[in-house]
Design brief:
Chain lengths: 559, 384
């Protein structure tokens, strides 16, 4: 009797969550695909031929693939050595660097676009002019409004995805394999290339694809950097179609969106193929202290190199945002008489609508992260602790959701969740929460799954033998062991939801405007300085949150 | 471990509490904001009241009779909405009027998605629209989404309105040129739209709004196409015109990244008044493009709150001299012929109207796809 009872609870919970994924994710996305073929009620390829025979759309597709592709390559090229240096060597100040790189993940990417626009615009970009004068060049060296400018900003803002993923894998790698290589006479460098790197391959591929999908589905950066340089990507193009404001525009947008979805699925398929085939078991679960590589005489030069990187990629753009927020006339120096002002900060911190939006963002992000982590936990349990057929399906769905471009998710939800099929959550905060969960659960899922694989089932079995039910085992055995991962995962979901722009921009309504929307509206319509103050405020909050968390939990819970 | 969990949980709770508290404690600061806005609106009020006294409400129903909820989608500046919102609370104390702000493109796509989702029987999320230009009104009227209302003083309107009363102009935005006198002198810059697209000295130093997402920019390119032919788009393209949002363009004007931009007069005036900016408007000598923005009421069956009486009263108020005061305070021009005041630092409305470039609204609506495509192919993404 007893046995039967707790099995019921387990399966009930799992079923509820699978149903949730089916209703709120699978169904809307399938409907979107359906609609792109049946926009007039009958099957027709007319939409497809119109959209895909239009040459300009092809240039957008090309731009998306090129920029996301290079952002992926450069992102991994940056992230791997950084993760290794910070995680496995005696680099000076590695904790500080880790903090800096992870901070970038917590900052809205379009804020970076704003900063780079100021720094590297081809006419009067601050950094451009500085370098020109420094090297006595005849003209400004960089042009941010170019495909390489786009690649640069995308890379500097999406490499943290790879950094976090690779770091985590590196931390759980079994160091005895490297030790074996060293004992057998290999140099540290040789060990790195013949042992560490191959072992890390699955994580690197996963990280690369994460960067690719994030960069390909990003809207803020291309809309700010790309548009003035006449560079359009699929996402900006979809938004153009959407903002036609007509029914046909909506159809055209969905047709184009289907292509992005196809790319995302293809990418996921490849990643599963590569990663799935080579899943080394490198985590013993016992030794979790990886050995530290001594950089020797390279310790100082490499530290300097990493500092320069951090200065260019993290500190200068953030400083630019702060300076902008205090400047009245952007044509003059911040220190010119009368040009320093606090009024933009005043607006950002006191305007009623901004405060309301902040509240909405906190509420929806807290909900998305909390519900998201519940889903992740249960699904990770299903994946790692049961032998059900198709147990990997929810994991795959979560991955698909994350790989689907934000615009696509938003459109699909609007079309299916506004009453036509019996569910009406449009214009409520729930539609945002659902959208955030679909898009960002993956980072949480990955964290929890890797935590599960580190905990031996024998502990739970012991509890079970002692008579503990399923819920009790979760509560008393499993959760306490993986709590740090749960908290980290929670924050990895919370942060991007907190400043989310692309989906919120389509889903918000009278009382559900969010901070991301507010920031983007100020940046594009009202005042860039207010937008900068707002971004600065978010930055301070995020850093403060992370520092406090780190202090309170003695380093266990920072991300 | 339990302790750790407790700490983490309490931290999360605290974080959300802080944010909620932020919302709550805003009352203090919003009071100061309110004071400011009231002060700004005081002059408006004074003038409005005397006008109102002269022309008593003809409808007979007093403002107290207006009740219920009304949701208005609008693209007016948020500061202005805050002012209007407060005033309306005073004028219609028993009604609950809610504004939803968004850019024109955002609102149009929102309405489109709502129409799509609503099907034949459903409702939209709003009762009134104060967004975009007459072309959009023509479209909504044709879709049967609007309610017809006979405005008593329509003979006082300076701009086209719908004969059947489906829409009225409520505010006027002017597409003009702007430059930064601290960087370049007016003498070396073009003073009309024609030269804006052809002057060699400006190549790579010009910017304009995006007609794909902004209704006013779209109206402007239709007018310019009528005036100068398709060639004008090609010229904008070879001029390397950056297509971007107004606030980005104004910053570029300040930093010198742009020499001259095509922009709405109101955004320059706003910057001058609020930030003491020295950026200047050039009223093009080939004609300012005056773009009325309309006020519309959604058909009762489709409207969110089915509150037609209140919508009509609100329409009356916005079109009245008192309502127009707020439009002008928002750096836009009034639509009434008996209203003299111009926005801060602007040329008087009558002066501007002496030299305008006409916009063919019917064509804006009917040929939208063709015009947008032509513009895109020439300007947004040129060959190569």
């Amino acid at each position: 009797m007893q046995k039967k009872h707790y099995f019921d609870i387990k399966w009930a919970v799992i079923l509820v969550i699978v149903a949730f994924l089916l209703v709120f994710q699978v169904f809307p996305l399938l409907y979107l695909v359906y609609r792109s073929f049946f926009s007039t009620g009958k099957f027709s390829l007319e939409g497809f031929s119109r959209i895909y025979t239009y040459e300009m759309n092809w240039s957008c597709l090309k731009n998306t693939i090129i920029t996301a592709g290079f952002a992926m390559i450069f992102g991994v090229i940056l992230a791997f050595p950084l993760a290794w240096l910070v995680g496995r060597t005696n680099l000076y100040g590695k904790k500080f660097f880790r903090f800096l790189f992870v901070t970038t993940y917590m900052v809205p990417p379009y804020v970076g676009a704003m900063a780079w626009l100021r720094l590297l615009n081809p006419k009067v970009g601050t950094l451009n002019v500085f370098i020109k004068n420094l090297l006595h060049l005849s003209e400004n060296p960089f042009n941010i409004y170019s495909i390489w400018g786009l690649v640069w900003v995308l890379t500097t803002f999406y490499y943290p995805y790879a950094f976090i993923t690779i770091s985590r894998a590196m931390e759980k790698m079994d160091p005895s394999l490297e030790e074996a290589s060293r004992i057998s006479g290999a140099s540290p460098l040789k060990t790195l290339f013949t042992v560490t790197l191959p072992l890390m391959m699955p994580s690197i591929v996963a990280a690369a694809l994460l960067v690719f999908v994030a960069a390909a589905s990003c809207y803020g950066i291309p809309s700010i950097i790309g548009a003035p340089g006449q560079l359009y990507t699929v996402t900006t193009r979809i938004m153009d179609y959407v903002s036609v404001g007509s029914q046909q525009g909506l159809t055209d947008a969905t047709v184009l969106a289907v292509f992005l979805m196809a790319i995302a699925l293809l990418v996921l398929y490849i990643s599963n193929f590569v990663v799935g085939k080579k899943d080394y078991i490198t985590v013993s679960g016992k030794s979790t202290r990886p050995n530290i590589v001594d950089l020797g005489k390279w310790r100082i030069p490499i530290t300097i190199l990493v500092s320069i990187f951090a200065l260019i990629v993290v500190i200068i753009p953030f400083a630019t945002v702060f300076m902008t927020s205090f400047t009245t006339n952007m044509g003059k120096s911040l220190f010119a008489p009368g040009n320093f002002t606090l009024k933009f900060w005043n607006t950002a911190l006191t305007r009623k609508s901004i405060l309301g939006s902040t509240k909405n963002s906190v509420i929806s992000a807290v909900w998305a992260a909390t519900l998201g982590m519940i889903v992740c936990l249960v699904m990770a349990y299903l994946l790692k602790r049961t032998n059900v057929k198709g147990k990997a399906v929810p994991d795959f769905l979560i991955t698909v959701g994350s790989g689907t471009p934000s615009v696509v998710i938003a459109l699909a939800l609007i079309m299916t969740m506004s009453g036509r099929f019996g569910v009406n959550i449009y214009n409520t905060i729930f539609i945002m929460i659902v959208a955030y969960m679909i898009k960002y659960m993956l980072m949480g899922m990955r964290t929890v799954v890797s935590a599960f694989s580190q905990v031996s089932p024998s502990l739970e079995e012991a509890a079970q033998i002692s008579g503990a039910g399923w819920l009790r085992r979760l509560k008393d055995v499993l959760f306490p062991l993986i709590i740090p991962s749960i908290v980290a995962g929670w924050f990895l979901i919370f942060m991007p939801c907190f400043y989310e722009l692309t989906m919120s921009n389509l889903l918000y309504s009278t009382d559900t405007k969010t901070l991301g929307v507010e920031l983007f509206t100020y940046q594009t319509y009202h005042s860039q300085q207010t937008a900068s103050a707002l971004a600065g405020g978010i930055l301070i909050m995020v850093i403060g949150l992370n520092v406090i968390l780190d202090k309170v939990t003695k380093g266990k819970f920072s991300i | 471990m339990k302790k750790l969990t407790a700490v983490a949980m309490s931290f999360i709770m605290a974080a959300s509490l802080v944010a909620c508290g932020g919302g709550g404690s805003s009352s203090g600061s919003s009071a100061t904001e309110a004071e400011k806005t009231t002060a700004a609106a005081e002059t408006a009020e004074a003038a409005g009241e005397t006008e109102a006294a002269e022309t008593p409400d003809e409808g007979g129903a007093s403002a107290e009779d207006v009740t219920g909820k009304v949701v208005i989608y609008t693209s007016m500046y948020e500061d202005i909405i805050a002012m209007v919102d407060e005033k309306l609370e005073e004028v219609f104390p028993n009604a609950d009027i809610e504004f939803f702000y968004g850019g024109t493109g955002t609102l149009q796509s929102k309405v489109a998605a709502e129409i799509d989702a609503a099907g034949d029987s459903g409702k939209l999320g709003c009762d009134m629209l104060m967004v975009a230009e007459p072309a959009y009104s023509l479209e909504l009227k044709e879709m049967g989404l609007l309610h017809a209302y006979d405005y008593a003083e329509k003979d006082k309107l300076l701009f086209d309105y719908d004969e059947e009363g489906y829409w009225y102009p409520v505010r006027v935005c002017n597409m003009v040129l702007a430059y930064n006198p601290e960087m370049y002198s007016k003498e070396e810059l073009p003073t009309n739209f024609k030269d804006f697209a052809t002057d060699e000295n400006l190549k790579g130093y010009v910017s304009m709004g995006n007609p794909l997402t902004s209704g006013t920019s779209y109206a402007a390119i239709v007018a310019l196409q009528d005036a100068y032919g398709d060639e004008y788009f090609a010229q904008l393209g070879s001029q390397e015109t950056a297509v971007e949002s107004g606030s980005v363009a104004l910053t570029k004007l300040e930093t010198g990244e742009c020499k001259e931009i095509m922009i709405l007069e109101e955004s320059v005036l706003k910057k001058r008044e609020e930030e003491g900016s020295l950026l200047e408007v050039i009223y093009p000598d080939d004609g300012t493009i005056a773009i009325p923005s309309t006020i519309m009421t959604i058909d009762e069956a489709k409207s969110a709150n089915e509150n037609i009486a209140a919508c009509e009263a609100i329409t009356d108020w916005f079109l009245s001299p008192e309502g127009q005061e707020y439009i002008v305070a928002g750096w836009m021009h009034s639509v009434r012929s008996d209203f003299d005041q111009a926005p801060y630092d602007a040329l008087p409305t009558a002066e501007i109207l002496k030299n305008t470039m006409p916009v063919d609204w019917e064509r804006c609506f009917r040929e939208r796809e063709e015009i947008r495509t032509l513009f895109q192919e020439n300007v947004t993404v040129p060959e190569g």
